[in-house]
What we know:
Strand content: 25-35%
Number of helices: 7
Number of strands: 10
Largest sheet: 10 strands, mixed
Oligomer: single chain
Radius of gyration: 20 Å
Distance between the termini: 37 Å
Amino acid sequence: MKMLMQKPNERLRQLRESKNLSQSQLARLCGWSSISRIGNYELGTRKISAEDAVVISAALEISPGELLFGEESSAVYKNYKYMLLTSLKAGSPISSPGSGADLEPIRWITSDKRASEASFWLEVKGHSMTAPQGASPSFPAGMLILVDPLEDLASGDYCISEVNNSDEAVFRQYLKDAGTEYLVALNSSFHMIEFIERGVKLVGKVIAAKWGDDKF
């Protein structure tokens, strides 16, 4: 009953300490660069938002209901964590995902999207996947995309691919027409890439996209 009688800020401090985590360590697990958010929540000077409750509870490996209400059965969310790897500049060279040491995880990002354990987040840079104004979807620079190498790809899906058997990787839409496969940018200033001509190798399907917490 003690947890039920506590306020959310008191539960947060007790749960964090039960995991032997400092405020700084918990903030890093949440993907936040500053510990002030955790500190303010524990002091009670800032109310824990529903969105942050999901992130914090995932880092603590508990349910949001346990954090906010002291009852594990109150959980209404299921969140998963995937590594954020080295930034991807759409259409520019990076080391291919899965190559090993060059892509050390930067931090973990949560999502309610369930994907394979091989999945990872990348940050879009550049403008090849920025659609014309008013068009949707659009993936501007700074947006995070979740890539699953084990997902099947169908025409119209979005993907990460290697081109010319090199370390160059691109973020594009996958299209198949009359048996011929293409990679197409949403920005018409970028040329379409044909698989046969450029020796394209698919890396993974983009299954989700969102803005990171640090953008707001």
